[in-house]
Amino acid sequence: MGGSDRVALEPLRLGLIGAGRWGQVLLRSAAALPEIVRITHISVRNPERLASSAPGIAVTDDWKKLIASDCEAVLIAAPDPLHAEMVSACLAAKKPCWVEKPLTLDLPSTRRLNDAVRKSGLPVWVNHIQLFNPAYQAVKEAVRKAGGGIRAIVTEEGDLGPFRRQTDLLWDRLPHDLALCLDLLSPKAGAVPEPESVRLLAGMRDGAGRPNMVTLALTFPGRIPVWIQSGRLKGRKQRELSVFTDQTLFRFDDQAPVKASRLQFRYEAPAPDSVGPRRERAGEALSIPSKRTPVQNALEIFARGVRAGQTTSPFGTDLALAIAKILDQCEEKR
Question: What is the 8-class DSSP label of residue 286?
Answer without folding.
Answer: P
